[in-house]
Design a protein that fits this description.
With 146 residues, the chain is α/β, with parallel strands linked by helices. It is built from seven helices and five strands; from the N terminus they run H-E-H-H-E-H-E-H-E-H-E-H. It has a single domain, classed as Methylglyoxal synthase-like domain (Rossmann fold), CATH 3.40.50.1380. Helix 5 packs parallel to helix 6. The longest helix is centred in the C-terminal third of the chain and has 14 residues. The chain is globular and about 35 Å long.
Length: 146
Amino acid sequence: MFCEQDLNIKCDKICSGEYTMKVHIALVVQEGMKDNLQKLVNDHKVFLSDNYIISTRGTAEYIHEKTEITVDKAVSSGQEGGDINIANMVLEGEIDVAIFLLNPIRYFPHCQDAYALMRVCNFKNIPLALDVTTADIILSSISREN
């Protein structure tokens, strides 16, 4: 619990620019779309590095290996319910933007988890990109705002 003095100090630091708000961005990718994610992350590397990235474990490892960006929070892999973990984080207000690069050609056993994420993003009015072009537009837009 903060006292009023603590809140005033935090407000002063926020107003002076000492604290900045980080955008919480979920990045998830299905097999067959990882090269697209790598290009997207590299295209927005500075912006993504300055914000808070949440990802499934496999995606987090891939992002770090291919782009040297460290994911701030990794949840379970998609097969182990990671997509549902991220959907829950959307419901809890912990995610501002979700990018889930779906493979349009191949069906995955946990595709219903991706559908659940789509539904909660729609319900909570959270921007969701399912393809690279939409993801690029969203990231470009919010990076200009910040």
